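Bug #77: duplicate submission created two jobs. Keeping one. Sequence:
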Amino acid sequence: DLTKHALAFIEQHRAGPFFCYLPYNTPHSPMQVPDEYWNRHAEQQLDLLARPADKEDVPKTRAALAMCENIDWNVGRVLKRLDELKLADNTIVIYFSDNGPNGARWNGDMKGQKGSLDEGGVRAPFFVRWPGHIKPGTKVTPLAGAIDILPTLADLAGIELQSPAPLDGVSLKPLLLGNAKAWPARTYFNFYRGRVSVRTDRYRLDPQGHLFDMQQDPGQRTDVSKARPEAHQQLTAAAAKMQREVSAEQTPDRRPFTVGYAEETPLPARDGVPHGNVKRSAGAPNCSFFTNWSSLEDSITWDVEVGAAGEYEVIVYYTCAAADVGATIELTLGERRVRGNVADAYDPPLRGAESDRVPRRGESYVKDFRPLKLGTLTLDRGRGQLTLRAVEIPGKQVMDVRLLRLRKLDGEKGNK
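Kept job's structure:
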């Protein structure tokens, strides 16, 4: 479906310059893939396994391989359509990924996976195609990273960048076109949850201070920090400097969610904060809903900034078992409030497990949610805490909540 929309976009803009970003959401859990791909991999013998092999979930790897084959087919659809539209020679195509695998599996014999700062966690495939300009089979060996994509594409397309701040990346055009006479040594930093890893063309310093010669030991098996004290000292100092600089800017995100800049503002559970007994349907906030709302002291809040004063219709997307019908809920923002009653039962089953090739971990199962109109809430411009709570609970719990939607009825237009 994502490919279908991308193809329609390309065809719509075929007559002029366009930029099409097509981010597939696989291979990722939940491990769901159509039968025609799964059936070719369901019993596949794996010759290459993770390090260590006993950590690998083989059925999950098989599902990931099936997903990759599906990606191959979809990428093929894009390339074929560019050929059919006679755009291939004038279109730069890049294929790349975001991080290492989301589980223990063979990764080019690199160490690490998603979430780690070892080579296998942060190194990803990167292919570029531009017929008539980039020679087929060209291999770029100097270090390059995602920070280089913007300046490279701008340079290849002849666009002058006007960035308000200096970019960390550089244009890789000379390397891609094969006319780079010299290329300076570069140092890359990976920073994640307070940890730093440093990479040069030859070495990687991991967050624990181990040094690896990536030319001689791409699998990071031997710590050479004692054998290469000068390199170890240099990269350790660079990591410490980066740690200080980045940590100083790692403050909590206090940005509010904006209301009133469009006719409707959705505020999903993903962006809310549970209080008291309320909890998410899964550990990851993505596509989750709030459940276990059982006390008058419980609440769900959203930090919002109203950009346009006026009347807003309030709609809560909910489910509720028949035994719990009758709760009265209230939404407040400052002195403004609106109340409603959960009068109708709606208790559909969870879905998703029937399509999983292996049990999911972390992601929520889903279900259908019904809209409940609470009424109209008058909102003043400004920032505040939107709070959803119960004032009466006749059953064991109030309801499950997936989404709060504010629909503007009248008043000011939102300020950009």
